[in-house]
Amino acid sequence: MKAMTSNEIRASFLRYFEEKGHRIVPSSPLVPADDPTLLFTNAGMNQFKDVFLGREKRDYTRATTSQKVMRVSGKHNDLDNVGPSFRHHTFFEMLGNFSFGDYFKKDAIAYAWTLLTDVWKMPKDRLIVSIFKGEAGIPRDDEAYEIWRKYVPPDRILELGMDDNFWQMGDTGPCGRCSEIYFVRGGTGADPEIEIWNNVFMEFERSADGTLTPLPKPSIDTGMGLERVTSVLQNKQSNYDTDVFMPLLTRIGEMSGHAYRGTHDTPSDVSMRVVADHIRATTFLIGDGVIPSNEFRGYVLRKIMRRAMRHGKHLGLNEPFMHELVAVLDREMGDAYPEVRRNREMIEKTILAEEHRFEAVLVEGLPRLEAELAKVAGTKSKVLSGESAFRLYDTFGVPYEFIEDTATTQGVTIDREGYDRAMEVQRDKARAGSAFGAGKKGEEFDAAADETLKGAGDQFEGYTTTRVTGVPVLALFDDRRQPVDTLAAGTTGYAALAKTPFYLEAGGQVSDTGRIVCEATGVSATVEGVARIRPGLPRAHRVRVESGTLRVRDIVNAEVDADVRDATRRNHTATHLLHAALRQVLGSHVKQKGSLVAPDRLRFDFVHMEPITREEIDRIERIVNEQITRNTPVTTDVRSTQEAIDAGAMALFGEKYGDQVRVVSVPGFSMELCGGTHVSATGDIGFFVIVGESGVAAGTRRIEALTGAGAVAWAQHQRATLASVLDALHAPDDQAVVAIERLQSETKRLSREATQLKTKVAMGGGATADSDDTIEVAGIKLARRKVDDLDKDALRGLADSLKAKIKSGVVVLASASDGKVQIVVAVTPDLTNRVKAGQIVKEIAPIVGGGGGGRPDFAEAGGKQPEKIDEMLAASEQVIAKILGTA
Question: Of 88, 298, 566, 634, which sits 20 to 30 A from 161 (CA to CA)?
Fold first, then answer.
């Protein structure tokens, strides 16, 4: 019988569990939503974390997924194994089935055994299993053992400890004992038995202090790597020999001229496996919104990409090549993961831009690497310091592996420990600047035991009204987010209401402001913002009590500032129009990276590789304003998430969506998943104007814009400014540019004349080269001069003139201007083998508090102590004498 393809295996798995009553849930993105404890999605259960914890309810209790997974950080880090290993990957697919308080161990084990042996026909005598043996105060899993005895004999049931049979997502969160299933290979492969499936019995939640608390309902979380089980079902010793990887390896072979032979240690095979794995990780990360950078997730992506590029060079691929491999993934995986097909153009452009950037890194960085190695090659230790190696990486982007390879050719070793220390300092800074690792404890309220809040849920009425009346106050918190019974006049804190019209900041839209009042008691409080207590609980209104005392169980009215809400709504709907216009003008690769929707302005960050031209900005503005003038009704409806995405709705980067979502549409132009508040028709937005365009990171651009009255005020200010400029120029508006260009030309001419005059003065009005400031040092002429207010270009010109006058010798010049020092050192060509300008400038610049360098014949430096110029010029004599060996 013909072996199943990987696509057939994935489909078979999902179909099997669907028949067993499981909901097929699409893979969540590789970037976890609302979970700062995770760098990347590293398990199938990540998207169900709050369901396991009882914080989120869904309309199903059984689920099955094929989840995109990255394991390149923390406990789960397989990066260094990729290439040498036949079965390690940075990116892979995790097949899983889940029970949320429905079935438990008996059914989970039966489902697994039946699928493997009856559906997929694996030989039963090739399967062995394991259970938790009991360790660290956690008892042996007797129940799992007795269930497995029905399927396998005792000698095929292993009993293992915490490292193998206790699973947890991270340092905190859901966890439990588990039971693994292993397949025993035939033949003489490197792995006689491999783990193919892990059944985790989710029983506990681990807190930060290590305490294990039973979950509300015991649940099931399983994981089976698609790549690994495919190698078993296709009878391959290596994951890379399966149809998951062979199309990529074949294409890499066509491009490089190396045939993949499937060996462990042949260098070309290792490099081909690295490229094949890393292009998968690269494609899916970029498709999920990660852009290569030097920080956080983008840093990991860049590291993966450059490792693949380095191995590409080992294969002889010296021109950009990675972007061409996306087509293979589109063909092989685009049906299962439509985001690859949908975002293919953007993914290819992003990869190509990074490949060009890496080439630029090597062009700029390798000469500096050679210079650093030259310094230590002649020393006794021949060791390049870790700090120097890290500086080459951090400043110029030269990968450590390139540094190490090049150093080896010159007999130089690298202080790896010093390099790792410097790298860790940088990572600490990056972590400190991001949410990753920060956790949520400081953001949450002390409301864990409040059953009133749990029963109330999060009732938001703000889509249909800005005012609700007769609402009970369910809970109050002080500024430290601790429960209190009252908030007195003049104090600040938080109030949780049974229902509310106040929007909680999300999707870029800021929280509403307004008032909470109780007419019966005379309480009046200003609502300054809104915070989340915990998912599924009422939102907390940040209040400043102006009069009276606010008490728990008070009946109050809550009213949003309608004018501020209206201004915010205008800007939010305008971001949707802007997003659609950007995709229309710039291309379908444009994808939202973030936004700010405030009452006074909007900001929109998106994926794009280059600055937007003035013409493109004008076209985008025209398209948006055309949609506004059409006054199209804005529609909102609630759909299933998958139905909405299938219909073409745009999803926001980094947002977490449930099974049901709000879809906001401008019919015929824009459709997005969005929980924000919007205008009823596009005409409500008024005038739209783009006031700023800039780059905020590699491959990410930002547009800032105004709407309504703010846009009108901006336009009027621009008009007034233009009128003032025209008045000052004494020119009509159609002659303004000509007038300015004429003034600029005249200014440049006068500036050149002034520089020439200053240079003549500095030359001593035609004095000879034998003037008082020219001396001899060991038979070499040294011309030293201090001049005023000459820029770099003028100093260079003066240096050339003095070299011509002295014919053979050294020129040292210094100019003071605005408290700063400019230094130029020049050496005539006949002397550069004896005395070098760069060496001189490095010795004398520190005297004026500066530094610099350059070529043997010419060098420059800066300084910040002009009062020491005379001291520096005097010292140049001794410096040259020392270099010549006469001092």
Answer: 88
